[in-house]
Amino acid sequence: LAAEAQHFLKRPAVTGDGSAVAIYINVASPDELAEIDPAICDGIGLVRTELLFHGHHGLPDEEQQHGAYKRILDWAAGRPVIVRTLDAGGDKPIPGLTIEESNPFLGLRGLRLSLKRPEVFRTQLRALCRAAVAGELKIMLPMVTVPAELAEARAHLDAVVVELAQAGIAHRRPPLGIMVEVPSVAVTPERFAADFFSIGSNDLTQYVMAAARDLNSVAHLADTGNPAVLALITRVAAQGAARGIEVSLCGDAASDPALVPHLLRCGLRKLSAAPAAVGRVKAAIAGIDLRS
Ligand code: PEP
Ligand code: MG
């Protein structure tokens, strides 16, 4: 199988019956890209930015962030790159930023925290708008739960773009998309006026199945292949297709060859996987016949 995965690694992903599937990768830092050939993917479907915020010298400033985002865009060489704004909290505590809560998965995490700390959020948005002149950067918001949060985030982006323009600083306004990982969004995606959707199957599964993603004792329940989770994924894919909004999936399910056939049958044609899983996932896709 390793040889088979190698064979598919740098080829476009196509099902046995000829449907093209775009394969993106998930990354957490520019350093990890040194080992990866961009030819294995159609772009980066998720840049997790939490690692940048774990330095020993406090939160990264605008220059540090700009440098990191620019390196990632340079590596991608024109391929699209979706950078997610800070998703602190939950399973990703960040000293000096997140607060202690009895139930962190249901607390102040992701965009909820960014909106409480607008100075931290705006610094990241400024760095992203500046880096966006170097490639196809898109901004993605984690843990969106209600439309008002998307509107508030968009207002911050508007303000940052005006600020940069007035200061004569080179920038571009990137598309603004959202993670679909809270059931409120997956059940009524039509309420969210985002430029694109990316399904976070890790969190979506834990919230639909009421089984924490980090607990071994309930791991058998935290199953993205459960019909309830797949029904929501199907709903989001159909909504996106009906409105002409791109829908991808960037949770761990996209790296699991056993789950990939289910994801394609839900209507998805864009998956973002762990770099090490790309060959395996493409091999699995080649073996799928969507007509049967
Ligand atoms: C997810 O929740 O599926 C996801 C991709 O984000 P993270 O694993 O970083 O929470
Ligand atoms: Mg998540």
Automatic annotation (TrEMBL):
Its EC number is 2.7.3.9. Transmembrane segments: none annotated. GO terms for molecular function: phosphoenolpyruvate-protein phosphotransferase activity. Keywords: Cytoplasm, Kinase, Magnesium, Metal-binding, Phosphotransferase system, Sugar transport, Transferase, Transport. It comes from the Bacteria. It catalyses: L-histidyl-[protein] + phosphoenolpyruvate = N(pros)-phospho-L-histidyl-[protein] + pyruvate. It is found in: Cytoplasm. Its cofactor is Mg(2+). Residues 3-289 form the PEP-utilising enzyme C-terminal domain. Signal peptide: none annotated. General (non sugar-specific) component of the phosphoenolpyruvate-dependent sugar phosphotransferase system (sugar PTS). This major carbohydrate active-transport system catalyzes the phosphorylation of incoming sugar substrates concomitantly with their translocation across the cell membrane. Enzyme I transfers the phosphoryl group from phosphoenolpyruvate (PEP) to the phosphoryl carrier protein (HPr). Belongs to the PEP-utilizing enzyme family. This is Phosphoenolpyruvate-protein phosphotransferase. The gene is ptsP.
